[in-house]
Write a structure and sequence with these properties.
Layout lengths: L7 H10 E11 L14 E12 L6 E4 L4 E7 L2 E3 L1 H4 L4 E4 L5 E11 L6 E6 L6 E6 L21 E6 L5 E4 L3 E4 L2 E4 L12 E4 L2 E10 L5 E10 L9 H19 L8 E6 L6 E2 L4 E5 L10 H17 L7 E2 L6 H18 L5 H17 L14 H6 L4 H17 L1 H15 L3 E2 L1 H12 L3 H8 L7 E8 L5 E9 L10 E11 L2 E12 L3 E3 L11 E6 L6 E2 L3 H10 L6 H16 L5 H11 L6 H18 L5 H18 L5 H13 L3 H12 L11 H13 L5 H10 L3 H12 L4 H13 L5 H11 L11 H15 L2 H10 L8 H13 L5 H22 L5
Parallel strand pairs: 1-10, 16-17, 17-19, 20-21, 22-28
Antiparallel strand pairs: 1-2, 2-7, 3-6, 4-5, 4-7, 8-9, 9-14, 10-13, 11-14, 12-13, 15-16, 18-19, 22-23, 23-26, 24-25, 24-27
Helix pairs in contact: 3-4, 3-5, 4-5, 5-8, 6-8, 6-13, 8-9, 9-10, 13-15, 14-15, 14-16, 15-16, 15-17, 16-17, 18-19, 19-20, 19-21, 20-21, 21-23, 22-23, 23-25, 24-25, 26-27
Length: about 850
């Protein structure tokens, strides 16, 4: 395929021809600090030496590089003309020898989009910070390389940087003669190499472990952030979770951490949650909390730390051949993050968060027109970029949880141990993992894989209860259904729980674990049990399915959901009710009513915050227009009532305060927010720190209660990188046609904004309370997106195409305009069409729910 894309077929051909012995990469980033003219630096020097072999002497191939210019190319001592061999994305290599040495000297570009070598200038102190981010294929923006995961090689990096800076890479490094030189890595893929450089605040610790054979493993630990965030950096907690995770994975994997040191860098304007670069994991700096947050935020950070740590084995040590098997690393890391969180840290209820929050992402993705098997068909790099989605992560992790129930935890972990030892520093496909799991479990992994990994769609499980004349269960069956487009009925290992009220509590009094297979399964173990008020299919959340309820169970939840005592069961019920709402089987006002009546009973803070998000989404997207004003008043009143009733200073109080700001809708609501900001009002125990101030400021701006002058004053209070992002979002949220036109121009007609400010501007532009102001932009959106896709980097293009889709113009007319664009652009980039198709599906779902129609 031409241009910056790379097809799977091209990668296969190149891997069959070449093997790589090693890289030496030399970067000169002294230009990053600019010069006295004030001009932004554009490029840095990159010199790459690659030693590789060809199985066919005389053959031709290519090396990947995206750079403004190439100074020189030398292949086996022959100087090649850059103007003839470099097309902006590839360097043609002809007449290869059996053993080759390639030297490429290029001028590569600093990034403002979070791809390649990202350069950030801190507005607080003017300091410059650099970091790299490559997945799936942006290492080629920093050095020449064979940009595909199966051409692994050792890397040696050296970096020339400003004198006062420190530089980090995957291996341990030291500075001599003004150059930072780093230890050679183990064989790894290009996309997990990394460089971080700048005046970062850096703290250290050490992890030690007795390996039981008379030796001690010692791993140097480091953690870093911008100097401006140092006062907020709770590195002790980061190190605590890191050590707990290393203990857990050493206990369970029986393969010592293989990459020497373990640094963790929290970096600005990061596009992802984190990235598993061996020896130097990078995270978005929002995981450093500038204000008070709930335990859900700390749990989420711990989960990400452990997710990335699991990658050191699943993904870095053993890597997929191509992006088809992305699940071999991401599904496992997603599962292992929660598995380790529960097993090693203080967050012992993390499976509740997984069931309620993580799976919601999977359920949505699996019902989109772009749903795909967990082992996906990834034709090229654009496909790969879009497949870092809810299927690959959360559904894959959910299926692995089902696999553990299917084969047993001991067999699962023993399979992992054999997998690491058998394929260390190599590349694998689906069959490599299935074969070791078949060995350790004795189960038919081929059939399981066909049903769970190689088919798309989510099954629904519904209980059917028949009672005998004495009021006991005569027969309890589970009915399994599948969507018409994806008719696979899967084998499910499930638990079925029976619940009844006892002393105003809704408690489980019977449980059976069984295999559900086919359209209808009779659960003989529960025959004769007393009649239940609630049947919960998939109790304990063993499988991946949409839970449905019989009429009696749904009626019980409508009246007694708050009385359910088990937090995981309660979270599963909330999730099931939300799926019913999205499927237009439960009216959105009914879901909001459930949150109004029972939300304050929710003890798990992560579930409560998820309920807040769902209730807001139900009001914005799924409720009939005629009811929206009523819903706004209901949610605002509920939020304020629970804010005042919450324990002073508690995390529940903080969660209700944030939700109140989100749903505030009356003059009295906004006056209270303004009073909380200026001190005229007070709620016992509520500390309005700077982050909470911005939460309160945004709705005031969006509803015209705060002007640009007040925003400037707020920025003066918080003149930091974080404050700037908040201010940019708030500026775009002002209720003015001129403001919306300016924001649109910044996003669509210009590429001057960094990735973080693009996201902030979109968030401010797209306000539910300003639907009328956004009407003109639906037509402009469809006229612009193909040009945006062609002109912008894929990361920025994805952000703009997804973020500016006119979902708030929720009318049949917008649906017709979307269909017209799709019909007229059948030859548009498949990845672009996928994004539009997904947005169309969300819009159609909203319209069905608003009309009260059932699931399509």
């Amino acid at each position: 395929m031409p241009g910056e894309n790379l097809s799977r077929d091209e990668a296969r051909e190149r891997a069959a021809l070449l093997s790589v012995d090693g890289y030496d990469v030399s970067l000169d980033i002294r230009s990053a600090v600019g010069d006295r003219t004030g001009d932004e630096p554009r490029t840095f020097r990159s010199v790459t030496t690659i030693r590789f072999r060809s199985s066919e002497p005389g053959a031709s191939s290519f090396v990947d590089l995206i750079a403004p210019s190439v100074t020189s190319v030398s292949l086996n001592g022959r100087d090649l003309d850059p103007g003839e061999v470099f097309d902006g994305a590839r360097i043609l290599l002809e007449d290869l020898a059996a053993e080759n040495e390639l030297i490429v000297d290029a001028q590569c570009a600093y990034s403002r989009t979070g791809e390649g070598l990202h350069r950030f200038v801190d507005p607080e102190d003017g300091e410059v910070y650099l970091y790299t981010q490559y997945e799936p294929a942006d290492a080629r923006r920093v050095f020449a390389g064979f940009e595909q995961p199966d051409l692994k090689a050792p890397f040696r990096f050296e970096v020339r940087a400003p004198e006062e800076w420190v530089v980090w890479s995957n291996g341990a490094g030291e500075r001599t003669d003004g150059v930072w030189r780093f230890a050679e890595t183990k064989p790894i893929s290009t996309y997990i190499t990394c460089v971080v450089a700048g005046p970062y605040h850096y703290v250290t610790d050490t992890y030690t472990r007795d390996l039981g054979d008379g030796t001690t493993l010692e791993i140097p630990l480091g953690a870093m952030c911008r100097k401006g965030l140092a006062p907020h950096f709770d590195s002790a907690d980061v190190f605590l979770v890191t050590k707990q995770g290393l203990d857990f994975f050493h206990d369970h994997f029986d393969y010592p951490y293989p990459f020497g040191k373990y640094d963790q860098a929290f970096v600005p304007e990061y596009n992802l949650g984190a990235m598993e670069n061996p020896g130097l994991v990078t995270f978005r700096e929002e995981y450093i909390f500038r204000g008070k947050v709930t335990q859900a935020s700390y749990e989420a950070r711990a989960n990400v730390i452990l997710h990335e740590m699991a990658h050191m084995w699943f993904g870095d040590l053993v890597t997929m051949v191509w992006w088809d098997d992305l699940w071999l690393k991401e599904s496992f890391a997603d599962f292992m993050g929660t598995f380790a969180n529960v097993g090693a840290t203080r967050f012992t209820d993390a499976w509740i968060t997984f069931a309620n929050r993580r799976k919601a992402w999977a359920y949505r993705a699996d019902q989109l027109p772009s749903t795909h098997p967990i082992t996906a068909d990834i034709r090229d790099l654009q496909d790969a970029k879009l497949n870092f989605d809810g299927i690959t992560y959360a559904k894959g992790a959910s299926v692995l949880k089902q696999l553990v129930a299917y084969v047993g935890q001991d067999a699962f972990l023993e399979g992992a141990r054999r997998y690491f030892k058998r394929h260390a520093y190599g590349n694998t496909r689906l069959g490599d993992l299935l074969s070791v799991l078949a060995e350790t479990s004795g189960r038919d992994m081929a059939g399981w894989s066909r049903s769970w990994l190689q088919t798309a769609g989510v099954n629904s499980l519904t209980p059917q209860v028949l009672l005998d004349p004495q009021g006991r269960i005569d027969e309890l069956a589970v009915v399994q259904e599948a969507p018409e487009a994806y008719p696979e009925l899967r084998p499910h290992r499930v638990a079925i729980g029976l619940y009844r009220r006892e002393d105003d509590r809704l408690v489980r009094y019977a449980r059976a674990e069984t295999d559900v297979d086919g359209p209808r399964t009779v659960v003989t173990e529960l025959a004769g049990a007393e009649a239940p008020e609630l049947v919960l299919v998939n109790d304990d959340d063993l499988t991946y399915c949409k839970i449905r309820f019989d009429e009696t169970s749904l009626a019980t939840l409508r009246e007694h959901l708050g009385a359910m005592t088990d937090p995981l069961a309660r979270a599963l019920c909330w999730s099931a009710l939300w799926n019913l709402t999205r499927d237009a089987l439960l009216p959105a006002p009914d879901f909001v009513d459930l949150v109004v009546r029972f939300g304050h009973h929710e003890s798990d803070i992560g579930v409560l915050q998820m309920l807040h998000a769902w209730a807001d989404s139900a009001l914005i997207h799924y409720a009939p227009r005629s009811w929206r004003r009523t819903g706004e008043e209901l949610l605002a009143g509920t939020a304020l009532r629970n804010l005042r009733a919450a324990e002073p200073g508690s995390e529940h109080q903080l969660a209700w305060a944030r939700f109140f700001a989100t749903v505030a809708s009356s003059d009295a609501d906004f006056e209270l927010l303004r009073g909380l900001l200026d001190g005229a009002a007070e709620i016992d125990g509520l500390e309005v720190d700077q982050e909470l101030r911005w939460v309160f400021v945004e709705p005031l701006v969006a509803h015209g209660y705060v002007d640009e002058k007040a925003l400037a004053a707020e920025l003066a209070r918080d003149d930091t990188a974080s404050g700037k992002r908040h201010q940019v979002r708030c500026l775009a949220a002002r209720p003015s046609a001129a403001v919306k036109a300016q924001a649109w121009a910044q996003l669509v007609e210009s590429d001057s904004l960094s990735n973080a400010l693009v996201e902030a501007t979109i968030a401010g532009f797209d306000r539910p309370s300003q639907r009328e102001l956004l009407v003109p932009y639906a037509e402009k959106y469809f006229a612009s997106i193909e040009r945006i896709w062609a002109e912008r980097s894929i990361q920025i293009a994805m952000t703009v195409v997804k973020g500016l889709f006119p979902s708030l113009q929720d009318s049949p007319r917008t649906l017709e305009a979307t269909d017209a664009w799709l019909a007229a652009h059948e030859s548009a980039a498949p990845a672009l069409r996928r994004l539009v198709l997904e947005a169309r599906d969300d819009l159609a779902r909203s319209l069905r729910a608003q009309a009260g129609g059932g699931e399509a």
